[in-house]
Amino acid sequence: MPNERRPLEVTLCQTLLECRLDFIERGDRTTDEIYDSVSNLYPHLCDNEYLCPHHGDRPSYKPEWHHVVRDVLNRLKTETTVIQHIQHRKWYFGEIINL
Fold first, then answer.
1. What gap in Å lies between CA 80 and CA 43, rounded to an integer?
2. Which of 37, 39, 63, 44 is nearest to 52 (CA)?
3. What is the DSSP string of the chain?
4. How far apart are the C-alpha atoms of 35 and 68, rounded to whole Å?
5. Distance, CA of 69 to CA of 32 (rounded, Å)
6. What span, in angstroms and rounded, lies between the C-alpha atoms of 85 and 92?
7. pLDDT at 92
8. What are phi and psi of 81, to 5 degrees?
9. Cβ distance 77 to 93 under 8 Å?
């Protein structure tokens, strides 16, 4: 049974989906660059002390909010052509066109 997210991670997810990650600089970005941008803009929603609980007995050294960011990226890549997954840990953010 998957672990439910805490309210903090739920809020982060909703916030990132609402803004559609439009604060990320256009062009090729690594996941680390994206994490940095998210934590700089929303430090109050990024708890580095709460590590990923999804790996059962295996220890995880990544904060759970990293999973939230990757989930949002994967969701937005299917909903828009602005965000594309290029290769492992690399994303492309295209131009936003207002019609």
1. 26
2. 63
3. -PPPPPHHHHHHHHHHHHHTTTTSPSEEEEHHHHHHHHHHH-GGG--TTSB--TTTTS---SBHHHHHHHHHHHHHHHH-SSEEEEETTEEEE------
4. 10
5. 11
6. 6
7. 94
8. -95, 0
9. no
Beta carbons of 81 and 29 less than 8 angstroms apart: no
Separation of first and last alpha carbons in the chain: 43
Packed helices 7-19 and 64-79: angle between N→C axes, nearest 10 degrees? 30
pLDDT along the chain (99 residues), means of 10: 80 97 94 98 96 66 93 92 88 75
